[in-house]
Write a structure and sequence with these properties.
Chain lengths: 111, 115
């Protein structure tokens, strides 16, 4: 099972700040990388599915990039809002469609 | 919208008792998963299924078994519950097309407390 690491563990920013976090993994032996947003007391919801080196995805103020050669993916949030406060998870899709998650980055946006 | 229901949503049980959690989907998605939520670990994969009677272990499968006798139901069983199995359990389905690495759609979670 691949080891998925996310950094930082937590982040506190002011409303309007832009922020980014990292998902890193040791190799390119996977089929896709997913990003999920997980609000407190709710279920995780998918943000992006990324499969190709150099992939870039965007949804509103949130975007993500994937670099399989160097083993990382970045998630960016432009102009953070209090409603962006959540835990952001990345997951690797291994052979057989097995998804392994990182521990997540907790984002708190203060108004 | 993918329909997925977990039951029970809340359960309190005693150490040593068996517990079964049920995940039910209303569509014929092939892949189903059971995860547990643990502070500092995010979601950890317990078992997953890639078809009827086809299952495989995840990262934390010890103490858990699963069964999938029909496409729509994926059962997670704790044969003899321990306090370390107190957690919130999430079922998920992969809603991508066959062969795609589709995103997961999660159930609402089942909170299990083992006293």
């Amino acid at each position: 099972i691949l080891n998925v690491e996310q950094s930082p563990q937590s982040l506190h920013v002011q409303e309007g700040d832009s922020t980014n976090f990292t998902c890193s993994f040791p190799s390119s032996n996977f089929y896709a990388l997913h990003w999920y947003r997980w609000e407190t007391a709710k279920s995780p919801e998918a943000l992006f599915v990324m499969t190709l080196n150099g992939d870039e995805k965007k949804k509103g103020r949130i975007s993500a990039t994937l670099n399989t050669k160097e083993g990382y993916s970045y998630l960016y949030i432009k102009g953070s809002q209090p409603e962006d406060s959540a835990t952001y998870l990345c997951a690797l899709v291994e052979y057989g469609n097995k998804l392994v998650f990182g521990a997540g980055t907790i984002l708190r946006v203060k108004s | 919208d993918a329909g997925i229901t977990q039951s029970p949503r809340h359960k309190v049980t005693e150490t040593g008792t068996p517990v079964t959690l049920r995940c039910h989907q209303t569509e014929n998605h092939r892949y189903m998963y059971w995860y547990r939520q643990d502070p500092g670990h995010g979601l950890r994969l317990i078992h997953y299924s890639y078809g009827v009677k086809d299952t495989d272990k995840g990262e934390v499968s010890d103490g858990y078994s699963v069964s999938r006798s029909k496409t729509e139901d994926f059962l997670l069983t704790l044969e003899s519950a321990t306090s370390s199995q107190t957690s919130v359990y999430f079922c998920a389905i992969s809603i991508g097309q066959e062969g795609d690495t589709g995103e997961l759609f999660f159930g609402e979670g089942s909170r299990l407390t083992v006293l």
